[in-house]
User: What shape does this take?
Amino acid sequence: MRPISVFLGLIAICSLNFEAHCEDWPMWRGPRGDGIGHGEDIPTKWSTIENIRWKLEIPGDGRSSPIVCKDSVFVTTSHAENLSRRLIRIDREAGKIVWNVEVHQGPIEKQHRQNTSASSTPATDGKRIYCAFVDDQKMVVSAVDWDGKIVWSVSPGSFYASHGFAASPVLCDGGVLINGHQDGGAFVVLLDGSTGIEKWRYKPDTDLRSFSTPVLASFEGTRQIILTGAKQTVGLEPETGGKIWWVDGPTEKFVCTPSIGLGHVFSFGGSPSERACAIRLGGRGDLTKTNIVWTKERSMPYVPTPLLLGKYLHVMNDAGIYSCVEPVSGEVLKTLRKGGNTYSSPIGADDKVYFFDDTGLCTVIRNNADYEVLAKNALDELVQATPAIADGALYVRGERHLWKIEKTH
Assistant: This one.
């Protein structure tokens, strides 16, 4: 098996002189973009009072995930009544709001009933916090410093998608990568992290909404951005945004972030039907007929991103149907109905997998093919955001509160 490494934690963040602890959670799905926390000892069991370090009410509405860096936790939020989009800094130990800054104000965009105007997760390089919002005319990307001052704010273009916006910024080579797949004028841009100046722009072949967050990877010495959307899964050059390779599908519209490992890209799309495929890395140009090693159409997700943990691919679809897949062969090792509807993506730590469904119930399983349940924990609050892991704690955003779950005794 040829090696592949996801290099968000090793290359992209280091190139930004990233100052945070190596196992902070600085962006969507963590420092490597893989949803895995390393060297952590987060609780397996909790309740609304047991192993709860603090619980903080978050004003406004948002579905973005928390990020954790140095002494702080950051979340975005929105207020429809005054058209405000905001970034909140929270003291990591005390669980108190340090500042709550308006980053953008503009007319509320058209959006899916389950979406909000603050569904894009921010990212930080330890100096600035980057966040992306849209209104009914344009996208706005901003950098905010540690004191809550807006360093720069730019609009990379107009934006329209009937379901709103949700893709999250990704740190890349001293810049901020933004996915602007939409129903008109789709784009992907890399902005300079210090100035907001555009470094390059990629124009997808099709103008079509998708909400997938890109992932950075390196395979056989070739660094690449893996991106899904607009009927394709593609690999882009980080330096220029040029296309290295592409395959058709697996569907038209995407929300899931692709998973990468074992020499493959695992791509999941959900509209007009839920489909998935595994793509063998290596090669250039159109790889549709040569590098797709398996496809699936049953019980695949649209919103929750699957978790590749070791030799198992853990898949939870929107309706709560769980599948454990052998990644390279595509063999389904286990499938069952887990429970309720699910938007939150699973995360992994200590060879365990944590699944939150929409009710706030978290099922913890061992990382194997047996769906070995270790615990079930209820927060009694809607949870549709994906948790963050840092320093032995789990940070969970509910509909109204942010919870820090940590061993308290």
About this structure: The CA atoms of residues 259 and 356 lie 19 Å apart. The longest helix spans residues 8-15. Residues 1-22 have pLDDT under 50 and may be disordered.
